[in-house]
NADH:ubiquinone oxidoreductase chain I-like protein
Amino acid sequence: MGIMKFAPEALKNLFKKPVTTTYPAEPAVYPERSRGHVAIDVDGCISCGICQLSCPLGAIKVDKKEGTWDIDRFDCIACGYCVEKCPKKCLSMVSGYQEPGREKYEDKFRRSAEAMAAEAEKKKQAALKAAAAKKALAEKKAREEAEAKAKAESNAEAKAETDGEKKTAE
Ligand code: SF4
Ligand code: SF4
């Protein structure tokens, strides 16, 4: 009874190609959404370090001053937290796995000089804008204080005049 159940499947498989492949001779085809490894568009990175803080394995190192982003692929478990947390969306999880190796090493990425210069300029402009806003606020405050002082003096003068007139009438 059991044989009769499996016989059609067994016969079908006799004429099918093997489902296994000859990897690595034949390149692997990964499913579209497989979590292979983390990729970075390094020029989109602002070195905020959120990925480094969110990595449970401590596999990422961010150096803001140097503009570098390093990952130890041997420590990475492809959980995708860093990809989820990146505020600039410059990290992504792509297919294709880490090549095996005898020694651990880090993959290093460095932001281009143009990207670093553009960010420095952006920061400079933001600092100038903040300084101008601070100056305008201080000027406004000084103006308001001067106006309040002038008003108080004028009120005091008016009161003194009124008091003087009352005394003369008495
Ligand atoms: S995928 Fe997970 S383990 Fe790998 S670097 Fe990102 S946060 Fe760390
Ligand atoms: S979270 Fe994104 S922007 Fe921030 S350091 Fe990591 S990769 Fe760069």
Residues 113-169 form the longest helix (57 residues). The domain at 29-111 is CATH 3.30.70.3270 (Alpha-Beta Plaits).
